[in-house]
Write a structure and sequence with these properties.
Blueprint: E1 3-7, E2 10-15, E3 19-23, E4 27-32, E5 39-45, E6 49-54, E7 58-62, E8 68-73, H1 78-82, E9 86-91, E10 94-99, E11 102-107, E12 113-119, E13 123-129, E14 135-141, H2 146-150, E15 154-160, E16 166-172, E17 175-180, E18 186-191, E19 194-200, E20 205-212, E21 222-225, E22 231-238, E23 241-248, E24 253-261, E25 267-271, E26 277-283, E27 288-295, E28 299-307, E29 311-315, E30 318-322, E31 327-331, E32 342-349, E33 360-363, E34 367-370, E35 376-381, E36 384-391, E37 395-396, E38 398-404, E39 408-413, E40 415-416, E41 418-426, E42 434-441, E43 444-452, E44 455-460, E45 463-471, E46 474-482, E47 486-492, E48 495-504, E49 514-519, E50 524-529, E51 532-538, E52 540-547, E53 554-560, E54 564-570, H3 575-581, H4 590-621
Parallel strand pairs: 32-39, 41-47, 48-54
Antiparallel strand pairs: 1-2, 2-3, 3-4, 5-6, 6-7, 7-8, 9-10, 10-11, 11-12, 13-14, 14-15, 15-16, 17-18, 18-19, 19-20, 21-22, 22-23, 23-24, 25-26, 26-27, 27-28, 29-30, 30-31, 32-35, 33-34, 33-36, 36-38, 37-40, 41-44, 42-43, 42-45, 45-46, 48-51, 49-50, 49-52, 52-53
Length: about 625
């Protein structure tokens, strides 16, 4: 939607597709005007109908029956319209159109020139017409001086519409806004630090008085005069709250009001001639816009809330709200003097019934009030259905849906939250750089996610929580009871770094070594070749077998309960041991063997002969001589 306006109880809406719609108890008519551009703004002009300004610089008048009465193409800067530098003012059959640097005056209903136009160097920012439409106040920027722009220098022109006779033409510095009374006799200038009041003299301004503002203009969030300069207002932040300062110009008196807690987004406000202030507060977190109304007699009360950014205008006892997708018409008849809005009192307590002070109570995610020392927050609202949200540090937020039909008292109990710190750790004392943590209560999953350094901080209520931690294929879980701030350490099965170095007896690395690691049950866990073996093993006992060609193999039992670095020494196999092992000497040739055998036989024969002769000689020397035989 481009714009919307109220005509009596009817709503006139301008759509960006080039259509004007008139709504009163349903859609009365729809008028396409896209051939003259998209409608930018609509303005009710009693009793003629509705004025329309288009993106191509056309000004049109449409009757309440939907017929087109007149169209005029304005000689203005179309780019200024696209930049949003435009506005309309109407009084007694005269229309002032401000577009960028140009001010154009037209009469109704034919849209002919009502008088000569006006022009400034930069742009016009405000126009006010007298009630009879004969005088115009124009406020513009008429300088290209950088310092002058920083000093908010403004060109003020008060002239007759028909013949361009100037009552006042002056340049004023440090100007935030101007207003003029309904008789066009008293001028009010809101400057950086004071309200300057002038009387219109002959071609000059006659100072009457100056009133210092309680807060300088640099602290204002929004500001402005009422249409006939009966009131001036500005909003500002103080102590975390949005405050309002309302000045009754006839009495030169300020009144201070508290609106709500400090908003996060933009603040837009308007004041009418009865002193009612309408404040739009946008919240970029919830992306809602809330409309508050301050009535000096009734106090602050909440009107409505919309999704997204919203604009407003106040005219003829109505507030018109325009968002990107919605236009709303709110009648103010229900806020007449003596008509009292409804009061909603919210008391926030803990589980034992004690009040909680400083709790934040929100209405429809936008209107915020903190509870008092007694735990109470009071709202002034119109009848309707409201979403009430309550939050406080160390407590679980609560949300309630409440239908307000009369003054009401609502008690909301918050449940205490405790800090649950979850830490995953290996039994070897190391901490994983990343792990997955899951927590559940009464079989219902509460939270799960990846945790850096295997650590998570959660705010939980009382109860028993099952906590599980997983790192790779390793996982562990446990049950913890939370009655206060609790630290839960979940222990995982860890691994230790084991380094085996294979050396010979002289301390030289055996590069061709083979290392086999087996569990106590005989299962092979690793087989590594080389002089160095690096393993990551859980705590326990392991058989380690080490072998290498030319070395005696060895087996050892390794007990792992910490980081280890072990040297394994291998002994070289000796030469004698080699023949025993089976490495026999080569067999000599057969002829050589026969020769050895023959020589051995001859040697044996000679030795045997020598031995026999020696023995016979001994025997002969010891025997007596033989006797002669008798015949």
């Amino acid at each position: 939607m481009a714009d919307a306006a109220a005509y009596g109880n009817a709503l006139v809406v301008a759509f960006t597709n080039g259509t004007i719609v008139y709504v009163e108890d349903g859609v009365r008519w729809a008028l396409p005007i896209s051939e003259r551009g998209k409608p930018i703004t609509v303005e009710p002009v009693h009793p003629y109908g509705i004025l329309i300004l288009t993106s191509k610089g056309w000004l049109g008048l449409v009757s309440l029956t939907g017929s087109e009465k007149a169209w005029r193409e304005l000689r203005v800067d179309v780019n200024a319209i696209k930049r949003g530098e435009y506005s309309l003012a109407y009084a007694n059959g005269v229309v002032a159109v401000l577009v960028g640097r140009n001010a154009v005056f037209k009469t109704l209903p034919d849209l002919r020139d009502a008088g000569p136009g006006e022009r400034v160097l930069n742009k016009y920012v405000k126009c006010i017409l007298s009630q009879n439409g004969t005088l115009a106040l124009l406020l513009g920027i008429n300088t290209f001086c950088h310092v002058c722009l920083e000093n908010d220098e403004r060109l003020l022109v008060i002239r007759r519409v028909g013949n361009k006779t100037y009552l006042v033409r002056a340049e004023l510095e440090r100007v935030k806004d101007v207003g003029i009374d309904e008789n066009f006799t008293t001028l009010y200038v809101a400057r950086w630090r004071e309200m300057a009041i002038y009387r219109l003299g002959r071609e000059r301004l006659v100072p009457i008085s100056n009133t210092t503002f309680p807060h300088p203009a640099k602290e204002w969030e929004s500001y402005g005069f009422s249409p006939r300069a009966r009131f001036f207002h500005y909003t500002y932040l103080e102590g975390g709250e949005l405050m309002l300062m309302l000045m009754d110009l006839s009495r030169r008196r300020f009144k201070r009001y508290s609106l709500t807690t400090a908003p996060l987004g933009a603040v837009h406000s308007l004041v009418d001639d009865e002193g009612r202030v309408f404040v739009l507060i946008s919240d970029p977190v919830s992306r809602n816009t809330t409309l508050l109304c301050l009535d000096p007699e009734l106090g602050v009360w909440w009107l409505a809330s919309w999704k997204g950014f919203a604009r407003m205008r106040v005219v003829d006892g109505h507030v018109v709200i325009v968002t990107a997708y919605e236009a709303a018409l709110l009648g103010l008849e229900g806020t007449e003097r003596g008509t009292r809005p409804l009061s909603l009192t919210v008391k926030v307590v803990n589980e034992s019934g004690a009040p909680i002070s400083g709790a934040l109570v929100s209405i429809n995610s936008t209107l915020h009030v903190k509870t008092s020392e007694e735990g109470v927050a009071v709202f002034t609202l119109g009848p309707g259905l409201y979403v009430i949200e309550v939050s406080s540090p160390s407590y679980r937020p609560e949300r309630a849906l409440f239908n307000l039909t009369g003054d009401a008292f609502l008690t909301i109990q918050l449940e205490r939250l405790y800090l649950l710190e979850i830490v995953g750790m290996f039994d070897n004392g190391t901490v994983p750089s990343l792990c997955h943590i899951a927590i559940s209560k009464d079989g219902r999953a509460m939270w799960s996610g990846e945790a850096v350094n295997c650590r998570a901080l959660l705010n939980v209520t009382r109860g028993n929580y099952m906590i599980s931690v997983r790192v790779g294929n390793e996982s562990a879980e446990g049950l913890w009871s939370v009655e206060q701030d609790t630290r839960a350490v979940v222990t995982l099965r860890g691994t230790y770094k084991v380094v085996l170095r294979i050396l010979d007896e002289e301390g030289v690395e055996v590069e061709n070594a083979t290392t086999i690691v087996r569990a106590e049950g005989g299962e092979t866990l690793a087989k590594v070749r080389g002089a160095k073996c690096v393993l990551n093993l859980p705590a326990g006992s392991y058989w380690v077998e080490v072998s290498a060609p030319g070395y005696n193999g060895t087996t050892l039992l390794l007990q792992v309960d910490r980081q280890l670095e072990v040297e394994v020494r291998l002994r070289k196999i000796k030469a004698g041991v080699e023949r025993e092992v089976g490495e026999q000497k080569p067999t000599p040739p057969n002829w050589l063997t026969a020769l050895y055998v023959s020589l051995a036989a001859v040697a044996v024969s000679l030795i045997a002969g020598i031995v026999w002769r020696r023995r016979r000689s001994v025997l002969l020397r010891g025997r007596p001589p033989p006797k002669s035989r008798e015949r």
